[in-house]
Each structure stands twice: as structure tokens, then as C-alpha cells.
Amino acid sequence: MTRTYRPLTLRRRTGRAALAGTAVLVAALTACSGGGSPEAAVDAEAKAPAKMSLTVNLTGEAAKAGEPVLVSIADGRLSTVKVTDAKGGELSGKISADGRSWTSERNASPGTAYSVEAKNGEGAAASASFTTAAADRVNKLTLAPGKGTTVGIAQPLSIVFDNPVTDKAAVERRLKVTTSNATEGSWGWIEDYSGKDRVDWRPKEYWKSGTKVELQANLNGVDSGKGGGFFVRDYRTEFTIGKDQRIKVDLDTKQLTLQRDGRTLQQIPISAGTPGGQKASWQGKLVVMAKEGTIRMDSQTVGLGDAYDKMVDYSMRLTWSGMYAHAAPWNNNNFGRANASSGCVGMSDANAAKVYGQVQVGDPFEVVGDGGKGKPKLGNGYGEWNESWTQWQARSALSGGSTTAQRS
Predict the structure, then answer these.
(1) Which residues lie across from 286 on neighbouring strands?
(2) CATH code of the domain containing 58
(3) Lower CB density within 10 Å: C or N end of the chain?
(4) Backbone dihedral angles phi then psi of residue 12, each to the nearest 5 degrees
């Protein structure tokens, strides 16, 4: 339903009565100011702004949210339109080529009161107001990496949603990545290890050291689709790409190599997962997800019965399912000799301390060689690097997939 708003205007008297009244008024003004004429007064009255009829597509106290605001006039051309909410936020928009309408660039948010102020080229003004209905369900999200962090060259932008996202294209359109060097990358939709919908943005190749990255998730007013609900706020994060460091674990040689800018910093003996079953290590291109320090590791939480329950130092998480690189002094006799752990990459206390001190969250951690249990699912950590660029692009909800981030 649309409603036409007609501001009140004073009706101008016509004929001799109007002219006589004008003449009296001008005469009085002449006595005081020494200038003016009846003809000038009539001209000024004739040039007064005409009334303007304003139509807004959203009306009333329970207008439909999640749609753009459309403001239009029947005659003349719009010069300015301003749509604001009760908190002072403004919906930006554009006037059409014919000047008859204005459309907001973003949708009206649920449960929000809006005021509309418009003017035409003749200086006439009109206003309107409406309030959108509250959302039946609200969707929220979690962003990684955190704002203001410095991360490694393999760290993707990752968004996990509280509720299902069935209209993935509508959400993806509102996600804007800006980098300091116009990095090419693509969004890809996957299932997180938690079972929730997730979308990650990874570059075509590993990030360049020093790149500054910003994400603006302009989702306020976007409907995530059936069962998901509306977003009622925007989100933002920014981070910097740190040193170019790469970690490689060779299951055959039982060695871990840490490189920075192509130069080897550490090469140390390790013992990885026991081949031939669930205790084998995951393989492929993993990413250091977090540096968790000293933590309790209980095998029963990862489906391995009562194999172990102990405090472990220098723990670096590689998957959600519980694969870590960490200190494992109890396995000292196997370092460099045999893969005999319960799936993690273990090393001596001294070597673990060295690696832990140098590794960054977001560093690539590649596991090669025989005896592993294959690659983890994409959502079990940051597994997108195990897909080709073409495969990753195909996971975008938008045609083409690949995007070049705007230069900041």
C-alpha cells in the first residue's frame, strides 16, 4: 500500500478582492520603507513554491522491512531526498534520471522508525514517516580474524552465521572486501564444523606480506532467507598480513620445517599421528587457527576413548576436530624416528617453545608424505587451500565468483 502525502497550502484569493488586499498591504509598506509596488507584490506571490505531492512505498506503523525505500513525485523533479532513522542513521540513495523518483541503496531495517524529507527543483518541500515491523527472527554472525590483528599469509576472512542462510546471494552482495593492493579473491560457501552456514573469502594465492585488509558486512536490513531471519546491524573487521612464514611437516622424514621469506629458520624432529586409523594425522594444506598455549587434552572429546587426558604446552590448533602441533615430551624416543602420536604433531619442549614463539595465527601448515588419513573437510579448520582456485570460485553464490578487492 502506498500513501500520498499532500502538505497544507494557503489558497490564494483571486480577482479584485485579492488585488485590493495586496494594494493595501503594499501601501502600508511603502509608507514605512519608501519603495515597492502592487505589481511587485503580485509577482512575488505568483513565484511562491507550488505544492508537492510525495509518495512513499512504505507506510504506516508496520511497514514491510527488507525492501528499498522508494520516494516519488507526480510532477517536477526531485532535488534532494533524505531518509533518516530515530538514531540519526541515514539511508543513502539515488534520484532517477527523470528526477521523478529516489531509491535507497540499502533496505529498510526491521523495527525502525524512518523520516522522509524531500524537496523539488522549485524549492517546494514535503515530508513523510513510517515504521517497519519488527523481525520475527534475527540472524547474527561471528567474524574472523579479529579486528586489529596481524595474521599469516594463509588466513581467510571467515564468517559463521547463527541461523541458516538460504538466500546466500543476497548476503554475499553486501560483503565488501577492501585491500591495500587490490588482491584477487573469492567468497565460498561451506558448512562449518559446527554444522552452521559459513562463508570464507580467500585470495587466489597466499596473501602478500604487509597487505592491509578490511571487511564491511553491510547486512542491516538484509533477509537471510527462510528460517534465517533478518540482520539488524552491520559488521566490520580489519587486519594486517604479517610475515611470510610457512610450516611444512613431512610424515616420511618425521621433520618439521619453518621458513620465513623462503629461508629456513627451524628444522626439527617430530612424531606425528600413528598410521592406519583414526590416530593418523590429517594431511594437506592446513592453517594455524589459534595459539592456545597450555591446554587440557582429553581423547574422549575427539572420539578416541581414554587414550590420554593431560595438560599440554605450546599448543597450536590446526583443526576443529582436535589436531594440534604441541610439546610432547612423553614421546621423546620417537622424534625423528616414528609417527606414534594420537594424531597431533608432537615435538620436544624446547623445540615446541621455539616454534610457538615464531608462528603466527594464519600461517600455512602443510602436511605431506604417507601414513596420513587424507584431507579434512573444508569446514574443519581453514581447508579452502586444499581446493583449486576454480573449485573455490564455484562455491560463490554469485555468478563468476572471483572478485578483485577494492584498493583502500
Answers:
(1) 365
(2) 2.60.40.3780
(3) N
(4) -85, 130
Is residue 356 a contact partner of residue 268, using CB atoms and an 8 Å limit? Answer: no
Backbone angles phi, psi at 243, to 5 degrees: -65, 150
Q: Are residues 55 and 149 in the same domain?
A: no
Are residues 99 and 81 part of one domain? Answer: yes
The pLDDT assigned to 14 comes to: 40
pLDDT value for 20: 32
Task: With residue 38 as reference, give the H or E element that holds it.
Answer: helix 38-46
10 Å CB burial of residue 69 (0-12, 13-18, 19+) is buried
| Contact status, residue 117 vs residue 210, Cβ threshold 8 Å | no
- Burial environment of residue 302 by CB neighbours within 10 A (0 to 12, 13 to 18, 19 or more): middle
The pTM score is 0.82
Contact 217, 174 (CB under 8 A): yes
Whether 313 is covered by a domain: the verdict is: yes
Of all helices (H) and strands (E), which one includes residue 46? helix 38-46
Reported as a pLDDT band with limits 50, 70 and 90, residue 323 is very high
User: Residue 187: which pLDDT band, with cuts at 50, 70 and 90?
Assistant: very high
Do 167 and 84 lie in one domain? The reply is no
Tell me the C-alpha to C-alpha distance, in Å, between residue 69 and each of 64, 107, 149.
10, 7, 37
Residue 248: all three cell numbers together: 611444512
Give percent of the chain above pLDDT 70: 84
Query: Which among 94, 5, 104 is positioned nearest to 55, based on CA atoms?
Result: 5
Asked if residue 399 is part of any domain, the answer here is no
Which three cell numbers, joined as nine digits, stand for 73? Answer: 513525485
The DSSP annotation for 294-319 comes to EEEEEGGGGT-TTS-EEEEEEEEE--
Give me the residues paired with residue 128 across strands: 116
Write the CB contacts of 350 (distance below 8 Å, at least 6 apart in sequence): none
Whether the predicted pLDDT of 203 surpasses 70? yes
CB 126 within 8 A of CB 334: no
